[in-house]
Every structure is written in C-alpha cells, then in structure tokens.
Amino acid sequence: MVTMIIYGPRRREAESFGQVTKDLFAYLSEEELTMYCFSALDTVRKFLKKSALLDMACVGIRGREEIDLLHQIRTLYAKAELLLVADATVSPMEYLTPEVRAASLLLYPYEEKQMKQVLRAFLGSCLKDRMQDSTEEKDFWS
C-alpha cells in the first residue's frame, strides 16, 4: 500500500492533481493507493501529526507557510518522496534545499499536459524505487 497526500492552496487544483494521480497510479502499479487531498493548511498539518505512514506528497507552494509545511513533512517522514508545485513568488532557494530534498518540480503556470507528464515521471520513479527496495529485501531474507 502507498500513502500519499496532495496539498494545493486551491481546492480545484488539489482535486485535479488527485484525479490525475489516481488514474496514473492505477496504470503504473498494482499496489493500493491511499490518497488524501487538502486545500487548507491547518487540516493537512493536523493530518500529518496523526498519520503513521506517508510515502509521497505533492505540495503547492505559494508562500512561507508551505515552506514550513515541507519542513514538517521532512521532520516526520524523512523518506517520503516530494513533488513540489511552485510559482515565481517564492524563490527556488527556499524550497530546492538539501533539507527539503524534492524529487520533482512543476512550475506555475502549467498546462494539464505538463502536470500529467511531471506526475507520471514522479510516480514512475517512486514506484521503481519501491520495487527495488522490495526486491533487495527479498534477496536479503532468501
């Protein structure tokens, strides 16, 4: 099972990412995806404090609050893969740091085709890494 959160400051954006992610994930993997979409910062922060597992996160960055959210995710889930969606209002020096360790980036404004392309690459890479980890674990115990 794979657990993922999607946070976008706009509800429509979060829902759009959620739908595309579900479709692509079903195409790329036979694993079960548990996904949570948020458009309110306080709600996603509460969820992160309660959730035991998080494998992937997609976070829309519009300001300092979202940068703080990235640090919270990293503190609680060091191995989670991160896809960032950012615009020009926030300097890349704020989110492209060793502490954040983003796996992928999509820049606003974007077209749906670009979103699908970035999500497919992100999910494909994450799932490939999971399958390699699983194979290594099986080899170890064999």
Q: Can you describe what's shown?
A:
This protein is globular. Helix 1 crosses helix 5 and helix 2 (41-50) runs parallel beside helix 3 (64-76). It is of the alpha/beta class. The longest helix has 30 residues, at 112-141. Helix content is 53%, strand content 20%. Helix 4 links the parallel strand 4 (81-86) and strand 5. The protein contains 5 helices and 5 strands. Mean pLDDT is 91; it is low at 135-142. It starts with a strand and ends with a helix. A 5-stranded parallel β-sheet has the order 2-1-3-4-5, with helices on both faces. The chain has helices at residues 11-28, 41-50, 64-76, 92-95, 112-141, and strands at residues 2-7, 33-38, 56-61, 81-86, 104-107.
Q: Which descriptors apply to this entry?
A:
142 residues, alpha/beta, 5 strands
List the helices and strands and how they pair.
Blueprint: E1 2-7, H1 11-28, E2 33-38, H2 41-50, E3 56-61, H3 64-76, E4 81-86, H4 92-95, E5 104-107, H5 112-141
Parallel strand pairs: 1-2, 1-3, 3-4, 4-5
Strand order of the largest sheet: 2-1-3-4-5
Mean of residue pLDDT? Answer: 91
The coarse silhouette is: globular
Secondary-structure-derived class: alpha/beta
* Count, helices: 5
- How much helicity do the residues have? 40-55%
> How are helices and strands ordered from N to C?
EHEHEHEHEH
- Measured on Cα atoms, how large is the radius of gyration? 15 Å
Brief digest:
By secondary structure, this protein is α/β, with parallel strands linked by helices.
